[in-house]
């Protein structure tokens, strides 16, 4: 077995299951303890029986054979092994199967994260899976003056497609709007089972014909950094380099920073 086998694929899945089987005691799953046991963990046949699969089938999985495993089987294995949410998500990732009960954390902003946003020396903000603006600093409020300082529940998508300021503030609005739809579609794949995200898309398609048209085009783009230009009503043309980060501890949040760049003679 190579070092790469331990990072992904059937071998990695088998090694993960074996390690957790060997650390799961019979008492943890309601089986009687026996002083004659040669191991402190579960036997393969015991885990297979609890999970509702044959011992041979489970043995093949643990041996790293290339077999197909259903989401239901993985869920039962995770339950039998008393896996924590992060461990269960990792199990599904190793198997290459979508977890139907994926553990998505609530979009909460910790005090520490809010302080980080406030202390940035550039416009910065936090968005959730529906691109609701959860926190932002003074620089961001100044950049989006007329929106962030007035909207009680600001949402970046609603701003781009429904707020009149967006069409004058965002340079080359049509291209930016088209890319934003494609980026948002790419991110929705992480929340395929989220009713909140599904309903949000349906509502915005009804409210904005431009968003509806863009969504119907089925384009997908990764959310990337790059130049972002604005025509600010007070400052005039400004140019930023956008960077997006995933804060640790909450995979649903995105932290966006806009680092101001000097305007060049070619910029328009």
UniProtKB/TrEMBL annotation:
SUPFAM superfamilies reported for this sequence: lambda repressor-like DNA-binding domains (SSF47413)
Pfam families: HTH_31, MLTR_LBD
Matching SMART domains: HTH_XRE (SM00530)
CDD domains in the record: HTH_XRE
Gene3D superfamilies: 3.30.450.180, lambda repressor-like DNA-binding domains
Entry-linked InterPro entries: Cro/C1-type_HTH, Lambda_DNA-bd_dom_sf, MLTR_LBD
Protein name, as recorded: Helix-turn-helix domain-containing protein
Organism field: Rouxiella silvae
Organism classification: Bacteria, Pseudomonadati, Pseudomonadota, Gammaproteobacteria, Enterobacterales
């Amino acid at each position: 077995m190579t070092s790469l086998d331990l990072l992904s694929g059937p071998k990695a899945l088998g090694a993960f299951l074996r390690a957790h089987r060997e650390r799961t005691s019979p008492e943890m799953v309601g089986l009687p303890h026996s002083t004659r046991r040669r191991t402190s963990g579960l036997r393969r046949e015991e885990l297979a029986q609890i999970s509702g699969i044959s011992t041979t089938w489970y043995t093949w999985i643990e041996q790293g054979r290339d077999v197909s495993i259903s989401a239901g089987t993985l869920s039962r294995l995770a339950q039998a092994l008393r896996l924590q949410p992060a461990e269960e998500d990792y199990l599904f990732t190793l198997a290459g199967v979508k977890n139907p009960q994926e553990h998505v954390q609530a979009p909460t902003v910790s005090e520490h994260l809010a302080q980080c946003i406030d202390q940035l020396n550039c416009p910065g903000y936090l968005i959730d899976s529906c691109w609701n603006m959860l926190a932002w600093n003074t620089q961001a409020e100044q950049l989006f003056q007329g929106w962030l300082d007035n909207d009680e529940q600001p949402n970046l998508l609603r701003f781009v497609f429904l707020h009149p300021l967006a069409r004058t503030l965002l340079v080359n609005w049509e291209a930016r709007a088209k890319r934003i739809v494609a980026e948002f579609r790419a991110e929705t794949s992480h929340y395929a089972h989220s009713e909140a995200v599904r309903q949000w898309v349906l509502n915005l398609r009804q409210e904005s014909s431009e968003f509806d048209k863009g969504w119907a085009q089925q384009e997908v783009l990764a959310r990337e950094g790059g130049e972002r230009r604005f025509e600010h009503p007070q400052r005039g043309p400004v140019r930023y380099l956008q960077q997006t980060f995933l804060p640790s501890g909450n995979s649903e949040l995105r932290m966006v920073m806009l680092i101001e760049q000097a305007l060049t003679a070619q910029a328009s």
